[in-house]
């Protein structure tokens, strides 16, 4: 059945691709496919507890819990002793080398993830970990550690002391959601939220190879939002991601979460509403709406607010359990794509319990900006079966892949206009708990879809943490 599905997708891609008018015929780009290569074990007994419906070792908003750089892959997690661990392997290798850090997870909260980043200017690995609206913990490696991995030792001696600042730079006492992103020049930026759920602001810090600088906050928590049910005067902007495109633009999709539940039809729902989009052409110093108008300046009193015009690219009221922090990517033309998910109106206009309603009736949608500048949205015909998030990956042909909870994979071809979504892998044999952590950089490095997942367990019984690799179209 799977071979027939993939063949049908390949034939559709071929039929939709143009043939050159003169000269030799050009072969059509292949459609989406995944071929399972190997699974490796990171930890037989990783820490396991369910919190906010998720796991601390596999949360969608980690950027990055798994990453590839210069022929090696790196992973970070908490083991059964609650110690932070960082590991590496040569790409394609079956054995991971591990270093156990001195830091131990302070509380059983799935928000308190470990995120990694690479500063290309000095070859350091950076880790930010263990925070949820409080202080963070930060570790960086020795300079050059990642530049020549085959000849550098992988021991605790190459990692510095655990800090509660960025080399002396204190950011906020209410810190959450660290996400590292490298600028086109190789500087390393750290995106984070200052404040709390329903009353927080997004902010950026930047490392130039020697010093961290706090660029400041760029989104606002103030202003009035009014739905048909009521109003709210505080909120936070939840990012679906933050990524540089090939043209150097910094892209971010988001949804707003209101503090006041009066905006909902039912207290059992979730106050997230609308999918918005902003971008920056100056490395995050100023932010523009979809029309290109500047709507916020980082570190100033004029930041991106719910009352700004031109932010919403897909409107939705708070009654459909829209998920926050789903996923985004940019294609080879620099165009932004996102995955969003919610309970469509055909299942009713008021969700009364967001976990149960999303599990029963939630659907994911592929939202993208096309070459003409308009936005298109396609429902992915896969039942979520979970309240959790789906990840998005684009291959080198700009085919799209949605990696659902439990490690299920669906794909759609660029040639079809992303209308031919088909299940490519049903998650069989993984026994994955829920969300997975994608290695975004490996897709570009060696055309492999690689993700980290944790096996199901019960209570607080530790379980195996693994990485599975799939070959994408060559």
TrEMBL record:
Q: Which residues form the signal peptide?
A: 1-21
Query: Could you tell me the keywords of this UniProt record?
Result: Signal
Q: Pfam family of this protein, just one?
A: BNR_4
Q: Please give the superkingdom of this protein's source.
A: Bacteria
Is Signal one of the keywords UniProt gives this record? yes
Indicate what this protein is called per its UniProt record: Tat pathway signal sequence domain protein
């Amino acid at each position: 059945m799977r071979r027939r599905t993939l063949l049908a997708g390949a034939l559709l891609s071929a039929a939709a691709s143009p043939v050159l008018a003169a000269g030799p015929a050009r072969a059509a780009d292949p459609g989406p496919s995944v071929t399972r290569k190997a699974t490796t074990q990171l930890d037989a007994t990783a820490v396991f507890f369910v919190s906010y419906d998720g796991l601390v070792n596999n949360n969608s908003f980690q950027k990055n819990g798994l990453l590839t750089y210069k022929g090696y892959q790196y992973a970070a997690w908490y083991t059964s002793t609650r110690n932070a661990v960082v590991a590496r392997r040569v790409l394609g290798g079956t054995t991971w080398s591990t270093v156990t850090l001195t830091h131990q997870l302070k509380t059983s909260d799935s928000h308190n993830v470990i995120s990694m980043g690479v500063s290309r200017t000095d070859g350091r690995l950076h880790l930010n970990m263990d925070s949820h609206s409080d202080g963070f913990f930060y570790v960086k490696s020795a300079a050059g550690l990642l530049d020549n991995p085959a000849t550098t030792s992988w021991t605790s001696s190459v990692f510095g002391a655990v800090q509660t600042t960025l080399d002396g730079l204190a950011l906020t006492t209410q810190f959450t959601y660290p996400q590292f992103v490298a600028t086109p020049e190789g500087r390393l930026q750290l995106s984070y939220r200052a404040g709390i759920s329903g009353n927080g602001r997004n902010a950026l810090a930047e490392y130039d190879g020697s010093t961290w600088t706090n660029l400041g906050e760029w989104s606002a928590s103030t202003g009035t939002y009014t739905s048909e049910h009521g109003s709210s005067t505080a909120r936070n902007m939840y990012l679906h991601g933050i990524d540089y495109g090939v043209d150097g633009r910094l892209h971010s999709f988001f949804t707003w979460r209101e503090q006041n539940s009066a905006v909902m039809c039912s207290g059992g729902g979730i106050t997230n509403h609308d999918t918005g989009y902003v971008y920056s052409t100056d490395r995050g110093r100023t932010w523009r709406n979809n029309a290109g108008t500047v709507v916020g300046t980082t570190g100033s009193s004029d930041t991106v607010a719910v009352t700004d015009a031109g932010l919403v690219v897909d409107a939705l009221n708070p009654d459909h359990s829209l998920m926050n922090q789903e996923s985004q990517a940019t294609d080879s033309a620099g165009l932004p794509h996102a995955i969003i998910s919610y309970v469509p109106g055909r299942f009713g206009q008021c969700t009364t319990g967001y976990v149960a309603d999303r599990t029963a009736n939630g659907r994911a949608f592929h939202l993208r900006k096309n070459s003409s500048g308009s936005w298109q949205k396609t429902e992915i015909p896969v039942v979520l079966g979970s309240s959790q998030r789906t990840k998005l990956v684009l291959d080198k042909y700009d085919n799209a892949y949605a990696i659902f909870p439990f490690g299920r994979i669906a794909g759609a071809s660029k040639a079809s206009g992303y209308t031919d979504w088909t299940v490519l892998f049903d998650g069989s044999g993984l026994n994955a708990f829920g969300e997975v952590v994608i290695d975004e950089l490996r897709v570009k490095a060696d055309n492999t879809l690689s993700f980290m997942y944790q096996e199901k367990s019960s209570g607080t019984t530790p379980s195996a943490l693994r990485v599975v690799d799939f070959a994408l179209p060559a």
